[in-house]
Design goal:
Structural class: alpha+beta
Largest sheet: 9 strands, mixed
Radius of gyration: 30 Å
Helix content: 25-40%
Length: about 600
Amino acid sequence: MMHPYRTHTCGALRKDHIGETIKLSGWINRKRDHGGVLFIDLRDTFGITQCVIDEDSSVLRDVEKWRPESVITITGRVRARAEGTANDKIATGEIEVYIDDAKAESLADVIPFQVAEDDGAGEDLRLKYRYLDLRRDGMQKKIRLRSNVIASMRRRMWEQGFQEFQTPILTASSPEGARDYLVPSRLHPGKFYALPQAPQQFKQLLMVSGFDKYFQIAPCFRDEDGRADRLAEFYQLDLEMSFVKQEDIFKTVQPVIEGIFKEFNDFTGTAHKIEWLPHLRYEDALLKYGSDKPDLRNPLEIVDVTDIFKRDDVEFKAFRGIIDQGGVVRAIKAPNVSDRPRSFFDKLNDWARGEGAVGLGYILFAEGEGKGPIAKFVPNAAQEELKKKAGLQDGDAIFFVCDKESKAAKFAGAARTKIAQEMDIIEKGVFKFCWVIDFPMYEQDEATGKIDFSHNPFSMPQGGLADLTTKNPLEIYAYQYDAVCNGFELCSGAIRNHSPEIMEKAFALAGYSKDVLEAKFGGMLNAFRFGAPPHGGCAFGIDRIIMLLANEPNLREVYAFVMNGQYEDQMMSAPSDITEEQLKDLHIKLALPKPKLSTEAA
């Protein structure tokens, strides 16, 4: 007896099946009426098969009424397509199925946007009807890519001797650098769980428990504002190892990530080269590239030219006033641009103004002299020094940014990217990886002067207790590292602080008393008092890996179900109101902000 739904999938039939009677089930992708002959492209996740029904068929009248995206089952005979009508764009393009019988399994209403083609539907509409959006071929490929990448990650981690463990989703609040999502406790009135920003403490406790090598495809939650490369809920390849140094982590995880990029790097149809560049210190990354996640496909580098603009013979007061208040001048060399039209420079200047800057001043060296809006303020001797410091030659231009150090670095980094984009010199067809190392342990709030952790508070300070005791906190580095690729931070990690004494001192410098430390992290601190191995690890963002492999700039395009940029799920109507009874169970009363009055009402 023939299966009630299908003998083959919609991507399986070939010339070898001609003459067979088969059964297919799927969605109506398209219908085409060619004067008494009706063509139906039947689709499932495996492919598309062209099906034909003519005017003599007893089921034609019913089939004509079925809309696209209806789910149907057809029984029919496989035959060769007419000469000259084969479709080499699909695997089943040499055959078609003549329909003998057809049954509607589930009829579709009028669809809100086209599935068979991109009709420009907006993101909100696509997310509201995500199940329709996911039927599209492009989305199906990206979601399958995600599944395959995760399967590959697991296999590669198992091959390296790691074991997979799950850690709690309901846990305690922790200072990971972002807001926690809080969950009220019904059984403990007034107390809250937190959804984990990362499995940080638990994976360290697994090392204390003696498991040696842990990994997890870990869900993480951070209550941050949405943007294209950040979501409230995301997944990471989380790992931890015992008795390791920083380089041991790199040597272990690098083949896993490189293997994944080699396995899937032709997803877009273009194979990419894969390069691991030498380690880059955090301070050098900010100075040379204006970012701790630099895109190293961009050949432009930033140089510090503050000393040149401090010279007595340089009379550029706009910069001098900022320098006198502790500012710096950063410069970006743009090679061989003397033949560029004036509009090239004007466009960059307009871009800078659009970013909130006064402009983007520059000097162009052509025909042996400096030209441009700043050149007249910089005498020849200073220009020669500038040429030497930035490696300038005739035909090159140099662009300037002046501000307080952190702001100057950030804006110079953005200018470096914009200039390279306008010059079209960002290397294509390559994934360029780099480990950024030697992160500062602490940072100082400019407004309050307060010392706080710069990144992960559980990192081991370089120099241990001695440096914590004798050095200025802002001069202490951590065994902390990021892996970056093409301008994205893919990974963050550290060698952990496994000493209670060092941890107490490290947190004390950030203003946490011993009582607070015991209250917030007593579980891990106590565990360390019973023998903790030196350990470290990292976590790679799975979503950003998929983004790079799929050449997709928006994280929401590589998830099956996801919220919009305002963290609303319009399909499931989340977040939603809850009842008074639910609030009462949780011992919670709402103190909602008052609605703002409109201008007219005011």
